[in-house]
Amino acid sequence: AMDHLESFIAECDRRTELAKKRLAETQEEISAEVSAKAEKVHELNEEIGKLLAKAEQLGAEGNVDESQKILMEVEKVRAKKKEAEEEYRNSMPASSFQQQKLRVCEVCSAYLGLHDNDRRLADHFGGKLHLGFIQIREKLDQLRKTVAEKQEKRNQDRLRRREEREREERLSRRSGSRTRDRRRSRSRDRRRRRSRSTSRERRKSSRSRSRDRHRRHRSRSRSHSRGHRRASRDRSAKYK
């Protein structure tokens, strides 16, 4: 819906810019000072038109008192407009003043005249075309705000999910690291047990070989001692 309304408003704004360019090419060139005074008259015209349209709407709704208050404000703006027109008339030749100075409505791209009467202004600013464009532009602003809020929420959700994935990945890496550490620890323990077992076997084997050597040495010693005693007895018997 936002894209559709943006396209519709973009087309209206394009027509507005083309109309401004066309007016700049066809209307008589005036100085910046005179242009500012003409702009002031246009602004007061718009204010009068909007107030009259509002007064008519209130009157149609039966709110006569509020409608009368709006009409009193209109009279005040009319007085300001009269003064602005006098300043504008005195700033340029009479022949040029009679030329119709047009302006393009920024809302609906319709043409507005510098010398339009109150009825013409009220019909424009209270008309369906102008009011319809106001509603469209207001709705477009609401949709833009809604879309921006939803986009922000999606971005936040996406960021939260990414943070959750990263946290899960960190936890998974930590869990895997602890598992690998436990495996390495068990492997070291097994190597140590095997090493201790091998050392014990070696010590046992060494002690066994030492005992065997000691037994053999003692056996040879006893055998040598018995042979020595026997030889001694033989020599003693021989001399006797």
Quick rundown:
With 240 residues, the chain is mainly α. The chain contains 6 helices and 2 strands; from the N terminus they run ααααββαα.
Q: Main traits of this protein?
A:
single chain; mainly alpha; two-stranded antiparallel ribbon; 6 helices; 2 strands; rod-shaped; mRNA binding; mRNA processing; mRNA splicing; Luc7-rel; LUC7-like (S. cerevisiae)
Structure description:
This protein has 240 residues and is mainly α. Among the domains are: 1-117; 127-175. The chain contains 6 helices and 2 strands, in the order ααααββαα. The chain has helices spanning 2-26, 32-60, 64-90, 94-97, 118-125, 128-239; strands at 102-104, 111-113. It has a two-stranded antiparallel sheet with strand order 1-2. Helix 1 crosses helix 6 (128-239), helix 2 (32-60) packs antiparallel against helix 3 (64-90) and helix 2 (32-60) crosses helix 5 (118-125). The longest helix has 112 residues, at 128-239. The chain is rod-shaped and about 165 Å long. The mean pLDDT is 79.
